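Example record

The entry below shows one chain as it appears in the dataset: sequence first, then structure tokens.
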Amino acid sequence: MSEDIYQRYTQLSGLEFLKELIAMGDASPMGQLMNLRVMEASDGRAVVEGVPDARFYNTMRRMHGGFAATLIDTGLGCAVMTKLGKGVGYGTIELKVNYVRKIDVETGPVYCNSTVLHAGRTMLTAECKVVDRAGLLHAHGSGTFLVYPKQG
């Protein structure tokens, strides 16, 4: 992640931060590690792309569930971030993941389409669907996020 944008986080709303990140084609350190990238962000909505890689296979040579769970947590968090003001942070306090179809390298990129359901003063909730290029559902999830006090 570019140090410049990271240092300016407290000066940007969550949506402004994500839009700059998208324009730079950058990803967080976790996003880089897990092949995740924010593709779209608007008020209460975000799309995050995840690219499966054999490095994420479990001992049975299947994609580890943590790949989809990380994609879902990232997508939900980005949607939540679009609702936050300058310097306001958040943290996941509950995450629910449902796996409905396998993901493997042959699946190709998958997309976590997330939407905020409730944006309160101290807590937000969101839901998402993880689909492939053909629109087939591979997983879905929801989460609850706690708002951290304004920084800086």
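Notes for this example: The chain has a mean pLDDT of 93. The two ends are 20 Å apart (CA to CA).
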